[in-house]
Amino acid sequence: MTDDTGPADDGLADARSRAREVRALYEQLEGRLLGRTWTLPELALGFTHDAAYVGRLVLAAERTWDIDGDTDAELRHKLAECLWWLFVLADRLDVDLSEAYGATMERIGGGLRRAVAEGAG
């Protein structure tokens, strides 16, 4: 992943930088506590755990699942944490998340625009 922040930058550069700073702090603790840093599969598992919890929090927000604490605050926290995980995983996999997001939204948006124009259901 690059650090380029030219005119086409979509505003994710600062978030990516902050995610890297936080990940570096985690790596220091992992080194101290585990003698190594988390592997890519461990990082992916951490993400999937938090993403699944977002599902429970959405149920809690809809009042179909009880949780302890402030549902709105916890939901905001977990959504932000999931975004952090995406930056971490993209960094480890050498994926330019800004470019991938832009290209994906263009492809999906283009298909949806065509479907809407054609009157598809």
TrEMBL record:
Determine the domain of life of the protein's source. Answer: Bacteria
Q: Tell me what this protein is called.
A: MazG-like nucleotide pyrophosphohydrolase family protein
Q: Which organism is it from?
A: Pseudonocardia alni subsp. carboxydivorans
The root-end lineage is: Bacteria, Bacillati, Actinomycetota, Actinomycetes, Pseudonocardiales
